[in-house]
Amino acid sequence: MKAELAQLIALQNADTNIRTLQAEIESIPERRAEIEKEFDQRAFEIRGLEEQRDAAFHERARLEKEIFDQKQRAERADRNLMAAKKPDEYTAAIREADAARKQISAFETQVLEQMEASETAENQLKERAPEVEKLRADMEARFKAFDEQVKTQQKQVEMARAERERLMNELPKAISAMYKRIAARIRDGVAMAEARNGACTACYMALRPQIMADVRRGDEVITCDNCNRILYYAPERNAHPVGV
Ligand SMILES: [Zn+2]
Asked: How large a percentage of the chain has pLDDT more than 90?
């Protein structure tokens, strides 16, 4: 029985290991998103500069379209002026041409402003190019390390599952079935509980001295009356530390 209890403990360790690794593997998308978020924050200012540059570019394109329209308006006014027969037609054409040219001039000033804005942003981006490059390299390294960690965890979980399978097959059917039954019923899936200092360490229920003695002997499978876990005794943990 002692050997079987040791196998049951090993089985419990494998199960706990599998659960921990499984949780890690399930949280991969979240952990990946966290890394992305961290880099997003670091890239925030740079993205701001890129947005400024792009916005200036689009605004400039819009202004140039306006200038084009106003130039056509001015040309039309010029033609009307040439064709004017009456003083009021003549005055209206002059006014129209003036208004269009004023608009053109205002838009041209704005174009210059936008050119300056995009140039400023572009220069700042150039200055920060090494920083951007470093950021990109850091992110790549982080993801590479993360992917490797994931691979390792997947290998570890496979190994733990194989170990669990092996232990399950080695145990007598009645005992492995009992373990499975208890593990399935208990919320955290931990079917084994250490008996220490006269109590079950899983549910803290006090154990009668006779039970404690039986568990310590390890001749049979004893379960906790309260939580139903299989009790085991770990001598090395219960031993008094030397020199204390
Ligand atoms: Zn218990």
From this structure: 87
Are 205 and 226 within 8 A, CB to CB? yes
Q: What is the domain range of residue 126?
A: 1-171
CA 206 to centroid of ligand 1, rounded, Å: 8
243 confidence band (pLDDT: 50, 70, 90) = very low
CA of 227 to the centre of ligand 1 (A): 4
Together in a domain, 167 and 181: no
- Structurally, the chain folds into a number of domains equal to 2
User: Which amino acid does the sequence have at 90?
Assistant: Y
Using the 3D structure, point to which of 155, 171, 187 is the last residue of a domain: 171
